[in-house]
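Recap from last week: sequence in, structure out.
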Amino acid sequence: MIAGDSGQSLEFQELAPEVMIDRAESFHNQMRSRRSVRDFSDRAVPMRVIDQAILTAGTAPSGANKQPWHFAVTTDAEVKSAIRKAAELEEKAFYERRASQQWLDALAPLGTNASKPFLQRAPVLIGVFMEKSTVSPEGERRKNYYPMESVGIACGLLISALHLSGLVTLTHTPSPMGFLSSIFQRPKNEKPFLLLVVGYPAENCRLPDISRKGLAGICSRIGRP
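Predicted structure tokens:
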């Protein structure tokens, strides 16, 4: 056991190197099959899975342990319809006026456009909100530290947990997305971070042909081994 500054003991079980390697390779093999999906089935998903995945996201490290995240979940057809309508208005402006040609060219292989039917068809939408500050029960506003980095890490855990549970996801980030605050009825100290679309893939789901960089393309080692 390792005692931290607070005096609380950390239970730590060291693994044999071969077990560590096996676990690392197994996790990579599971995660490398993860793909962003835009063709969803409307089949309901077990909400216990959603709850557990959000609890996993809540284990993420955060600046000063402020845990500056909130996950707003909806399965309601009217709410999803409102989100789709608002998102498509912003997306239409993006594709027609806001995006540079270079950006549109980069998106072209993915086949994306202003139409977002998955926002209505997918069974679950999770609005992820970043708490820039925390308001105490007495109304005192206190700053949160590194909220963007903290929420980003939490989202990575959330997506991984959902993938390992057998669901598919899509990270959707309409810009601007302030409409999510009003639809999800979130307070002013929170800022929309992303909208996560969750469910099962449609039977005829098609994916763009993409590849991922290998280790040499994303990792460098400095100094002597």
